[in-house]
Fold this protein.
Amino acid sequence: MAKQEDLFKNVVSHAKEYGFIFPSSEIYDGLSAVYDYAQNGVELKKNIRDYWWKSMVQMHENIVGIDAAIFMHPTTWKASGHVDAFNDPLIDNKDSKKRYRADVLIEDYAEKLNQKAQKEIEKAKGRFGDAFDEAQFVATNERVKGYLDQKNAILQRMAKGLDSGDLADVKALIEELEIACPESGSRNWTEVRQFNLMFGTKLGASADSAMDLYLRPETAQGIFVNFLNVQKTGRMKIPFGIAQTGKAFRNEIVARQFIFRMREFEQMEMQFFVKPGEEMKYYEYWKETRLKWHLSLGLGKENYRFHDHEKLAHYANAAADIEFNFPFGFKELEGIHSRTDFDLKAHEQFSGKKLQYFDTEENRNYVPYVVETSVGLDRMFLAVFSKALQEETLEDGSTRTVLRLPSVLAPTKAAILPLVKKDGLPEVAKEIVEELKWDFNVAYDEKDAVGRRYRRQDALGTPFCITVDHQTLEDKTVTIRHRDSMEQQRVAISELRTIIANEVSMRNWLMKM
Ligand code: GAP
């Protein structure tokens, strides 16, 4: 089995074994692409959400948050374009009976061409050393140019087919590229069809009077319909932002990648309202700012890249993804979209209410333009968790599994361990728990030998283990063990709070932005 597949399998099994993520309603054999966050997962998820909220809302005086309802008036989704255009092009393989997104099959093919080009570039880099001029090499090397031109031509043709609704040409492209079903290897495809991703439900008790509703497929619309309420009651001046985190629902066609693509998931979105004509400036600003936020977590610069969209969503005039190197390759983690005035104008039209801003400097009303940042909380979880999970061989030849989570996100910040379960050590350890729990999520563990307890906390991502031993009774010191280096220091109990705070404080982590 490929190494990447192994890694991904480990991620899924570790998440379950250590109480991070369980399949939903598992006793009934689970529900496809729906997952529950367990006792440790819920803490990690909450910490990621808090890290985002603090950097977006608390650290920007011109950004405020809201929490809109999941149910919205159904006309919202007509106005936003989701009823008519929130579709994925699907294709079935007649032999394996597996269903795929036609665009994903083509994009995966194009990505292989891209990887071939990147391989050539890497080889040339090695050959030419410091003298290597990548831009010149890409422009002049026939083979690399060939791969990249072919890739671009494929993506452009696909975008044209999807935009114009020419699904027959999308199928023709799949056939011309001889794309086979990854499951069966067969090229026996159905036609490409559009499939709306929204889940429907009903509001009201009787069948006659019930109103058809949708579960929101994005949190953004809750922000748009509240734009004027927030602007007026918050006396917000453009440019300003409204942020929100919350559940979104999509009936995904292909949902086979654990929490990467779920049918119920959580988004962290921010809509930034700007003067028309200034959107590109802020689009660039938010691209850069959001990437810095990701980099502040220290998972490695090489694991992120931008991908500019070839095919723009119905509301956007520019869009880019921040892609992350997941265990199954680079995939979208966050989207940054310049959404123009599409949404506010559409809501004006459908509601008959004005959604305009009065600019006192220019003495005129206008519908603001919007730059959106939208990151999936579950995808952030997977990104952080999959990079953090490592198998290490130690100097003595033994191995350990360690979850090197950024300590600011770790579910538990410190575990307090009495060396033995007697001689008054548990009592002192519990006193330390009582003291530290005011500031940090801490755990107490007295079961098993201390070495095994260290390993268990390593696997849970706990940055510190604090061991109470007999010396503690004499001089009020403990050993503090660092998860990543496994180094141990002797420190006074009175110093613990400061040591932990320095390491896990959001302030220190966000300052790296
Ligand atoms: N409001 C814009 C919007 O919803 P999107 O690119 O469709 O844009 C934004 O979604 C982010 O939401 C994605 O970058 C991804 O992180 C997350 N996301 C989208 N669909 C998802 C799914 N089915 N499961 C988990 N996360 C998803």
Summary: Residues 87-196 form one domain. The mean pLDDT is 95.
